[in-house]
Write a sequence for this structure.
């Protein structure tokens, strides 16, 4: 599956957003979050990030890729964050790569950064006790076939334990 | 965890109803500027003509001291937007350069607080910069000076207004976490959350409504006293006299007899800006030529 269908309404970054992302990238280069690696591309607007499963967790030794697309008004608006194929088996991660994590949607704050998102995602992975897809995976993925962005989903966050 | 992707629906859940309510609120909010025009207080009488007797009685009392209101958009940021406009308007009218110098010192301390709490400077400097830019442009006689009309325009501009609101959210969150022991009982009393969780979920995201905790923290951190006047249904029309409750948020270390110039009208769930009768701001804009 290709994930390039997401982020249809892509608009170029505003000057402020571009400026801010440049600063984030510089900071990342000197102080990257542990377990993550930014793959260098020529795009400031789309970051591809390598994720390494943390030691002593279900995902130890596994490697995944996040695709982060930034909107025109980042950081006032949340970036779109999805796992590229193949996403980790996790009760909050759908097989199309969409992630059910409140900070990516309703609870986004402009106080967050790519780093803080990464740390939240790794913590979500690390605390998992079972490798499984969400119970409604088939239905959800079927409904996203038209290339819908996870930011258009109405998410319910009932369980913040896993 | 569950998702709603169409079909297979049961009856609406509480969070679903809340989401629907938020949607309506957002649609309604779009109809209003971030900050409206100054209006005589009598507009509220028209609004509540058919309303409760307590409300109308309180409005009469309010009119003795206050002359006009300026509405803020009801999008969950109304406290911060009201504070922003009211404070900057006060400065543009009074040309109080000493106050600007004082608040700039407070901002430096807020900045240090945020750094001490682990925020990289780049995460908040754009927001801080926009607020400082507004502060510096209210003093007249400089190339960058702005008129009251321009201040209104800027406070209605999505970029300026949202960036300043976000700066205030940073400051509020920083102050709450810096004095976590002080704020903890208030936060636990209403939400059962830890201080950090509260800041993350109820202060830092845009659109999260403010209450006493937010107002106390922002007022203390910036050193700006705030009066909130409550127009609500409390009290009984048969109990004479009906009174209007005020609460003054006085920053630590400030004389408690100080008269706040940032005055907000609170109606359940919403803040607007309130003006005293014969406020000098009523005789704009010639006053801008004078210096205190």
């Amino acid at each position: 599956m290709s994930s390039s269908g997401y982020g249809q309404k892509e608009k170029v970054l505003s000057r402020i957003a571009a400026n801010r992302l440049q600063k984030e990238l510089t900071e990342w280069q000197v102080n990257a979050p542990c377990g993550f690696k930014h793959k260098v591309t020529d795009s400031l607007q789309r970051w591809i990030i390598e994720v390494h499963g943390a030691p002593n967790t279900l995902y130890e030794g596994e490697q995944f890729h996040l695709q982060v697309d930034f909107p025109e008004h980042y950081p006032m608006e949340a970036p779109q964050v999805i796992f590229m194929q193949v996403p980790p088996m996790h009760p909050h991660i759908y097989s199309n790569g969409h992630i059910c994590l409140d900070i990516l949607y309703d609870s986004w704050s402009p106080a967050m950064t790519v780093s803080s998102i990464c740390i939240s995602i790794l913590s979500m992975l690390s605390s998992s006790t079972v490798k499984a897809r969400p119970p409604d995976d088939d239905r959800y993925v079927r409904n996203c076939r038209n290339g819908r962005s996870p930011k258009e989903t109405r998410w319910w966050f009932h369980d913040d334990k896993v | 965890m569950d998702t709603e992707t169409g079909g297979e629906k049961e009856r609406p859940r509480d969070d679903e109803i809340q989401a629907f309510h938020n949607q309506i609120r957002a649609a309604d909010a779009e109809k209003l500027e971030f900050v409206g025009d100054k209006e005589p207080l009598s507009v509220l009488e028209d609004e509540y003509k058919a309303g409760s007797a307590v409300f109308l009685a309180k409005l009469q009392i309010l009119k003795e001291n206050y002359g006009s209101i300026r509405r803020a958009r009801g999008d969950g940021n109304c406290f911060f937007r009201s504070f922003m406009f009211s404070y900057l308007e006060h400065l543009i009218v009074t040309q109080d350069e000493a106050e600007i110098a004082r608040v700039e010192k407070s901002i430096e301390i807020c900045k240090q607080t945020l750094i001490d709490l682990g925020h990289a400077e780049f995460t908040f400097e754009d927001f801080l910069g926009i607020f400082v830019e507004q502060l510096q442009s209210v003093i007249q006689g400089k190339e960058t000076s702005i008129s009251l009309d321009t201040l209104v325009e800027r406070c209605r501009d999505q970029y300026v207004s949202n960036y300043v609101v976000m700066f205030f959210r940073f400051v509020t969150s920083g102050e709450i976490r810096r004095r976590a022991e002080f704020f903890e009982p208030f936060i636990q009393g209403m939400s059962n959350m830890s201080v950090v969780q509260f800041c993350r979920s109820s202060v830092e995201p845009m659109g999260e409504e403010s209450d006493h905790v937010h107002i106390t923290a922002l007022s203390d951190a910036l050193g700006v006293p705030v009066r909130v006047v409550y127009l609500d249904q409390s009290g009984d029309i048969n109990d004479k006299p009906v009174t209007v409750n005020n609460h003054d948020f006085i920053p630590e270390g400030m004389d408690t007899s100080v008269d706040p110039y940032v005055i907000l009208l609170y109606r359940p769930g919403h803040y607007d800006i309130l003006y005293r009768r014969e406020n000098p701001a009523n005789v704009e804009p010639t006053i801008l030529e004078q210096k205190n």
About this structure: The first helix of chain A runs from residue 15 to 30.
